[in-house]
Amino acid sequence: MPLSDIKARIAKAEADAGRAPGSVHLIAVSKVQPNERVHAVLSEGHRLFGENRVQEAAGKWPTFREEFPDVRVHLIGPLQTNKTRQAFGLFEAIHSVDRPKLAKTIARIAQEEGHCPDLFIQVNTGEESQKAGILPTDADGFIRECLDMDLPVHGLMCIPPVDEEPSLHFALLAKIAKRNGLKGLSMGMSSDFERAIALGATHVRVGSAIFGERVPG
What we know:
- The structure is a single chain.
- By secondary structure, the protein is α/β, with parallel strands linked by helices.
- The chain has a single domain, classed as Alanine racemase (TIM Barrel), CATH 3.20.20.
- It has nine helices and eight strands.
- The radius of gyration is 17 Å and the shape is globular.
- The protein starts with a helix and ends in a 6-residue tail after the last helix.
């Protein structure tokens, strides 16, 4: 589906929800996509992308940034603590702050580097044992812990269970964010981003609908 069609659907969803035009940021999920597909989307003028792995991003984005210096890349996949410093040099935002050890590592490196990417705390809204993220019952305390370390917590992120209605999880994430005074909501993917926008998403992560099916490498 052309990028323009996705952007038109986002604009309609914003209007239907009574949201301001442009209030939703489209993250084009470029993980495991051939460079020529990514370059094509860059050439159309899109500048916000999402990657799942530090190593893949390191092999791709420094070169693209030479041609497109205004591009912004967000880490939307898990971050190992030993890759944190490298992530600081690659990403404008990290959407997967999911445990106290990682938060403390980010805080330490932020002090050393004098800057920090925008942060989203990942909440495991489905309480799935195989999935990363802070449990909903622990979210308020973890958010406070991060803010007490002066971390730039921009908002929350979730990945709903595949076999459940995502709107229930989007609503839960929005509720947690509101009571903690957080504005950012990273939620919604190719199959459900309109429902996420209706429930307050500020960042939607769309990959296959823009690029086509991923090409495993």
